[in-house]
Amino acid sequence: MTRDELAVLMGVASGVDRYFPAADDDVLDAWYELLADIPAAAAREAFRHHYRGTSETITPYDIANYWRARRQQPPVGAGAVRNDAQIQAGVDRALAALVERKALKSGEDLNTAQAIAEGETAVRRLYRSVPCPVCQAEPSRPCVTWKGQPLTKSPAHPARIEAAQAGVRVTSDESSRA
Ligand SMILES: [Zn+2]
Hints:
single chain, mainly alpha, 3 domains, 0% strand, binds zinc ion, Phage_Znf_bind_put, DNA-binding phage zinc finger domain-containing protein
């Protein structure tokens, strides 16, 4: 934030807190020295949060601490993205283990079974990255039959696997068709 933005916030603080130090140039310099790297919006939030919660005088520590805590909790959107990736990784691992066990049962040795499992997981991740041109399954959703059932004979419609391999991102224009 800028020195002016900080001065405004300190002015507000002294309006609600009679113990708040008068923001003369020296005080302002000292606070600015400590808080310059904190965004104005976060500092404003910290003041608001503080004075709604306590009658104690706010300190630069309170503001810096508020900013630190907030940065450790990323916005909901970012968290959700990471969770999706984590879920996908978990699904991939579970699927790989399943495929590996199946390959082992059918008499493959461990290395071959692991290679098959990794290959299937990679292929699955690849075709799941594009929508299906046949059944219109969205990215990351499995292919379904025209009755809405999962496919039993192949992991996905061949056209989808081909589309993914060609690196073609088939864009869905559902909205314009609907
Ligand atoms: Zn499909």
